[in-house]
Write a structure and sequence with these properties.
With 164 residues, this protein is mostly helical. It has two domains: 11-76, Arc Repressor Mutant, subunit A, CATH 1.10.10; 85-161, no CATH class. Helix content is 62%, strand content 7%. It contains eight helices and three strands; from the N terminus they run αβααββααααα. A three-stranded antiparallel β-sheet has the order 1-3-2. β2 and β3 (72-75) form a beta hairpin. α1 packs across α3 (47-61) and α5 (88-104) packs antiparallel against α6. The chain is extended.
Length: 164
């Protein structure tokens, strides 16, 4: 079983970790079986145990599980891991937009202390960079460079793509 850092894990979380860890790639386990294992509904009051078990296994054993709506949980192969990772991009873009919009709501920039002016401008710079680099055209540009190199790009190489 994973060491789950120094945190004392709940018995239910530990039981789910054991069950999920034994799954093969592509195997699906039903919500009913998961719920029977921990004696509570993993879609309701036991949801956090399933979330924790999945997070621990992803972090410590590099095993990734996705939800199959109205069915249960499936252990992903490498293609599934990439596809699941790509689903986070729209969420990130929304968070970037909300962060930039929030900082842009400052009404009296000149009244801010100097340190907060720096923080304000730093945040806007970062949010702008992130928003622009996640645009479809930029993602395509990065994909082309990665395709030529056949591996991920270091930060310096990625920044050079935007200097051309």
């Amino acid at each position: 079983m994973p060491n789950a850092s120094l945190v004392q894990l709940h018995d239910r979380t530990q039981a789910l970790i054991r069950l999920l860890s034994d799954m093969g790639i592509g195997e699906v386990i039903s919500y009913s079986r998961l719920s029977e294992t921990i004696h509570c509904n993993v879609q309701a009051e036991g949801k956090h145990h399933l979330y924790s078990a999945r997070a621990i296994l992803r972090r410590e054993e590099r095993k990734v599980y996705d939800i199959v709506p109205k069915v249960g949980v499936v252990r992903l192969d490498d293609v599934g891991k990439v596809q699941m990772g790509a689903r986070y991009l729209p969420r990130i873009k929304g968070a970037i937009r909300r962060g930039a919009d929030t900082v842009a709501c400052v009404e009296d920039f000149e009244a801010l202390p100097a340190s907060e002016k720096v923080r304000h401008n730093t945040l806007l710079t970062i949010y702008t960079f992130m928003e622009r680099t996640t645009r479809p055209a930029c993602v395509k540009h990065i994909e082309q460079a990665v395709s030529q190199r056949q591996s991920h790009l270091a930060l310096e190489e990625t920044l050079q793509l935007f200097q051309r």
